[in-house]
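Exercise 4. Each item below gives a protein and its sequence. For each, produce the structure-token representation.

Item: Glyoxylase, beta-lactamase superfamily II (Anoxybacillus pushchinoensis).
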Amino acid sequence: MKWNRIPLGPLQTNAYVLVHEDQTCLVFDPGDEGEKLIEYITANGWTPLAVLLTHAHFDHIGAVDDIRKRWSIPVYVHKQEQHWLTDPMKNGSLLFMREAITVNEADVLLEGEQTLTIGAFSLQVFETPGHSPGSVSYYVEKAHAVVSGDVLFLGSIGRTDLPGGDYEQLLQSIHRHLLVLPEETVVLCGHGPETTIGAEMDTNPFLNRF
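Answer:
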């Protein structure tokens, strides 16, 4: 099982494609440039099974409908942010981009921590609010990776000054759900390069002062 990072859009938001040995894949946070992402997946001969969102800010959802239309696959998002997909004020696009970015409603609403089985993939869903109320992280043990969205970054954490953000809640989410993972776990961040749980435990200044 392997993962691939594709930065997309003006904010270079990371979409990730997690690929199984059978060439099926999962698409995480397709934020923009749908045609570019479709061409990348098609060129590699992969077959997407689902789109999984870590949260519903505009820069993480912009190409959702492009991917869904191309492969007729379901979209997953946390229940607390189901209406953000269709509301440009809630997803922040009107505030930051001065244009409305919306996508159709999700097919599957996540609520509570659970294990998802999609094709040959098994993922643990952790509720990790703080950056946004419905932020989730997807831990894929067989890939030794966690898709954290905008919760945890290399040397930093997600911003909490947006509507629904909560600094203390974010730190609690990170400590309760992410830092308990094996230290070699790769953190697939929503922006910027990857890191590991161990590296952030040792060097992240936000976590070391909590």
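Check: The longest strand covers residues 2-8.
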